Amino acid sequence: MDYCGPDPDHFNQPNQHSSNSENLFGPLHKGIVYLNKPKQIIAETLQRSKLIISFPSNPIKHSTNHKTPSMVIKCDAVVIGSGSGGGVVAGVLAKSGYKVLVLEKGNYYARKNLTLLEGQSMEQMYLGQGLLATSYMEAVILAGSTIGGGSAINWSASIKTPQHVLSEWSKKYELKLFESQLYQEAMEVVCEKMGVQCEVQDEGFNNMILRKGCKELGYEVKNIPRNSSSDHYCGWCCLGCKDGRKKGTNETWLVDLVESGNGVILPECEAIEVVHDRKKGKDRSTAKGVVFEFKNQDGEKDFCLVESKVTIVACGAMCTPLLLKKSGLKNPNIGKNLHIHPVVMGWGHFPAKSWPDVEKKSYQGGIMTAMSSVVEDFNESGYGVIIQTPALHPGMFSTVMPWVSAIDFKNRMTKFSRTAHVFALARDKGSGEIRPKTSISYNMDKLDEKNLNKGLEKCLRILAAAGAEEIGTHSNKGRTLNVKNASFDEFECFVKEESSKGLSDLSTLICSAHQMGSCRMGVEMGGSAVNPNGETWEVEGLFVADTSVFPTALGVNPMVTVQSIAYCTAQAVLESLGRMEEAA
């Protein structure tokens, strides 16, 4: 396959065995607290961060789930999730002087303690160990589950909220936030914090092919803004960033939290219930904190009660609805309106003897540096597709490639390092629902299917125009075309047939790396789960700050948008905490 395994540069750098803790473990090491330590060590660590902790001699029965917390932590704000939503809120609140506790069910993997092995990294850093899918296999789901969330394993694309989306959300959905100066300021702050820039010094294999194919065909192609430096030539960032130059929340906002001295991050701690109660005469309850589970010093499951003034849920669009429902919230919009940015891919084989440079490999270089909007159609309908490139190491490559026979599969795998992929990503009108026990349904809209068909046609044409010897899709028929030996008519027939196949009958693999909308924001409870400040309609002091609050699908990579919304939500949380202080 001509695959080197983990990035060899990662393990050959001279500071690998340095005593500098940051080089070894990343910038959060002083703020990470594991609860499988002796109680005295846990207490001393949390108290240094100004959190109050106690160990009741007679653990109290608590909540409808009858958990018995053996530990109680008191803070101003508890943030559940450390990704692009939770990380931002935690950083803003801690820098403002509030005592913040961050809970993350994943673990901390950063810099020198990364393995960059595909199988191990997927198990450690992805939701469902990278094997999550909708209930009837309509789509394969990739989502982060580690400190830094999706921002720790994503592909760097950092695109501001498109203007047509801002207009739709502010006008059609009457969310004035998205036409406000605050939101514009939030996008600027977020992009500056992540060091977003557009330059590319040395382009990787897939993106070179996308760019060349577009130029040959006269299609628009442009650089993608990224939260990494122009010389960041790393194809392993989907398995964690080896040097911290990709600025996820684990390298930015959570660093603010740690450096402020006002909070800590607890890995391997899973929230199981938001605690809230209703006082007499009030029409809604008030958030009081959260119960979470962890493994104690003896390796046994234990429970902790966090008592907080405000609670921020940022578990991501896949998990936030489940936690809210387990916590007794009844709003029927929770879990519905899930959008997934469905993706279909075309591939092209470029033998080493052909363009581009024989040294280029499909798994090396910046994962996303170029994109085309040749079929985006956003100005007309507001819905369409964009064309970009993915990260595929051998395990994922083998998963998405169709199975025809053993010998055919072996042949495809031997071409791995010189097989380029280009994908079409739809801003979907279709939607799904998340139900208890992570049951995920999804129904593709006919418009989405039509747009993806158009996008797939362009992907195949781009690959051929760039010089591919052989092209194909992920249709289960496994058809391929030798472009060099095909006539014009044969080529046109193949492209049109392969790109017009149905996509809702499980015959072609659909992938998703972006999930959103499952607790959408709105101006009234009837059609939404949270209000324009990100606060749940049912529970005062309970906020949601992740992609689940998107009113619709976005259409582009969501990192800048979710961080910007979370920044605005953090301002609302600050106001809420300020009112509490005044009332006290």
Quick overview of this protein structure:
By secondary structure, the chain is an alpha/beta fold. 28% of the residues lie in helices and 18% in strands. It is built from 16 helices and 21 strands.
What are the segments in which pLDDT stays under 50 over at least 5 consecutive residues? 15-19
Rounded mean pLDDT score: 94
Structural class: alpha/beta
Task: Please report the total strand number as a whole number.
Answer: 21
What oligomeric state do the depicted chains represent?
A: single chain
Largest sheet report: 9 strands, mixed
- The N- to C-terminal Cα distance equals 66 Å
Radius of gyration in whole Å, from Cα?
Answer: 24 Å
Query: DSSP helix count?
Result: 16
The gross shape turns out to be: globular
- The portion of residues forming beta strands comes to 15-25%
The percentage helix is: 25-40%
